Amino acid sequence: MTRILHAPADVGGNALGLSRAERELGFESDVAVVAAGPFGYQADILFEDAHHPPLARLPRRVAFLRRAAHRYDIFHFNFGQTLLTVRAAGRVWNELAWLKRRGRTVVVTFQGCDVRPQRECSCSKAACTADDRYRPVNAERIARFADRVLYLNPDLARWLPRAAAFMPYASVDARAVEVGRDPGEPGELVVAHAPSDREVKGSAEVIAAVEALRAEGAEVRLDLIEGVPHDEVLARVGRAHVAVDQLNLGWYGALAVEAMATGRPVLCAIDDAANPFGEELPIVRARAGTLLEELRTLAGDPDRRRALGERSRRFALERHDPRAIARDAYAGLVELP
User: At what angle do helices 230-239 and 254-261 cross, to 10 degrees?
Assistant: First the structure.
């Protein structure tokens, strides 16, 4: 049986969703993370945490990597990171060549700011700025040794090798998600927004648009979902009529997939020039300058909300099936069960 390890991070639950689909397909698959994330996603192995001093972390990682190299056949690294990435003096070193010499298959998934230049991001954090110079160097080294490079956001193709392939989010199994309230239900319109980072997601503009609608006399309320476990996020999104993902980037994230799985219409900034789904994508296109009008239209059109919710649910089932995504991720690399 082929054994797959996902490491060293699980951003947005994508590694976990893919891993559980791999188990359904007959693989042995585990998720190992360096630290528990803030949203309550499960991990099979937690091999490092904040209680260990920095000088103790490297030997712990080395020891874990040696054990893992004996156990796993495929190493699937997420968020453009590996277990032993070292950045210094404009250069990047990692363990991929070592793994390849031992006959291991290496897959790497990029998810956004791990390769997107800071000039193209909405984030102004100091750590993001400091890491910017290493992103192309890191991507180049990964492309040199990885058997397959994947990316979750279509715009990332601009900074990755041509052989890299788009992969839809596998974080949500829509079959296991209950459909929420009727999005066409009359009464106060509830707008869900669950930003992982307010600046990046354009939350100030979302808040302003809802307040503007209220000032017009519309019955509308914003459910701003922050600092709660993933299960609560999903439940609250399902109780809303519509969901707003983000207004600054050109693609939707895991929240949008969750919302679509519950049958919610989703509003989000989409770069249609890089959209691999075309008109099939049921997301209402919205940016800071258009969100108010789009919300106003949806608030007054319950039939459209209901139709969009039904399309969204179908899209999540068909295009974000983690089992189909797992098959595509490893096709040609390993014999599929």
Answer: 50
Bridge partner list, 166: 151
At 39 the pLDDT is 64
Q: Under a CB-based contact definition with an 8 Å cutoff, are residues 152 and 168 in contact?
A: yes
Question: Please, what's the b/e burial string for 28-63 (b: 16 or more CB within 10 A of its CB; e: otherwise)?
Answer: ebbbbbbeebebebebeeebbeeeeeeeeeeeebee
Q: What is the mean pLDDT of the chain?
A: 94
DSSP 219: -
Q: Contact, 67 vs 46, CB < 8 A?
A: no
Q: The domain 3-171+321-330: what is its CATH number?
A: 3.40.50.2000
CATH H-level, domain 174-319: superfamily? Glycogen Phosphorylase B; (3.40.50.2000)
Tens digit of each residue's pLDDT (9 = 90 or more) over 242-251: 999 999 999 9
How far is residue 72's CA from residue 149's CA, in Å, rounded to a whole number? Answer: 19
pLDDT tens for residues 283-315?
999 999 999 999 999 999 999 999 999 999 999
pTM of the model: 0.94
Cis peptide before 8 (omega within 30 of 0): yes
Which regions of the chain carry the CATH code 3.40.50.2000?
3-171+321-330, 174-319
**How many angstroms separate the CA atoms of 333 and 329, rounded?**
9
b/e code 227-250 from CB counts within 10 Å (16+ = b): eeebeebbebbbebbbbbbbbebb
Supply the DSSP symbol for 12: G
Q: How far apart are the first and last CA of the chain?
A: 9
